[in-house]
Amino acid sequence: MKIELIVTDMDGTAVKYSNEPFYSSWDALADVFSEEQRKEWFTIRDKYLSKGNGFYREWFDKQVSSLRGIAVSAIEDILFPVPYTKGFRDFFMGLNGIKKAILSGGLDIVAEKIFEEVGFDYLVSQKLGIQKGYFTGRGKSFETGLDKSPHLIELCKKARVDLSRTCYVGDSRYDVSCLELVGMPVIFEPKQDLKSYAKQNSIVVIDDFRELKNHLKC
Questions:
Q1: Comparing C-alpha atoms, which of 96, 97, 78 is closest to residue 32?
Q2: Distance between CA 31 and CA 41 in Å, rounded?
Q3: For labelling, which of 18, 44, 79, 207 has a CA lying 20 to 30 Å from the CA of 164?
Q4: In angstroms, rounded to a whole number, what is the distance separating the alpha carbons of residues 163 and 211?
């Protein structure tokens, strides 16, 4: 079936920051803090990850509140230039005839930069509050928490493309709900917890986005 829309996750998929295990924009933010604050940042992350999706909003609010009063320019020095994954820019900038979208639970400031630099058609992300160049300590998280599938469904409706004609690219267990909805699921450099899932379900696995072109029926 012809693919008409490619939706990509961001953290660990479109971008790869130098932090393990998620290589995420969220974790990259810790570099703006003191050593003590960094420890607290990761303590909060690990605490709420272990609690599960029901505590997502509580985690989001705690993390975002710690950014209050920090200059956006200080964050930009840490996050940019965007550390694109292998082949990402080449693939998407050379893509013709297929719509492309970013669906990210990561930082909107990074997602918007990718949207502009690479030239995407759609972007769905969470939002961080900014006023007069400083973070307000507030933001708007996904109501569905770690489950992005409702946003994928809405995105396909907006693009007027059936899920069966959609390709979704992700890298972790948090992408499974989206991978299971689309006609063409793809996993980029799968995290350890997703490797067996990819094998059991015969899902295409890539480590360079340029490989994806060989799998598209367009």
A1: 78
A2: 10
A3: 207
A4: 22
Q: Could you tell me the pTM of the whole model?
A: 0.93
Long-range contacts of 37-40 (CB under 8 A, 24+ apart): 37/66, 40/66
Q: Rounded to the nearest 5°, which phi and psi values hold at 118?
A: -95, -25
What is the full DSSP assignment across 93-128? HT--SSEEEEEESS-HHHHHHHIIIII-SEEEE-EE
What whole-number distance in Å separates Cα of residue 3 and Cα of residue 99?
9
- Chain centre distance of CA 22: 11
- pLDDT, one tens digit per residue, over 54-63 is 678 888 898 9
The size of the chain, in residues, is: 218
Catalogue all structural domains in the chain, each as residue range(s) with its CATH number. 5-20+79-215 (3.40.50.1000)
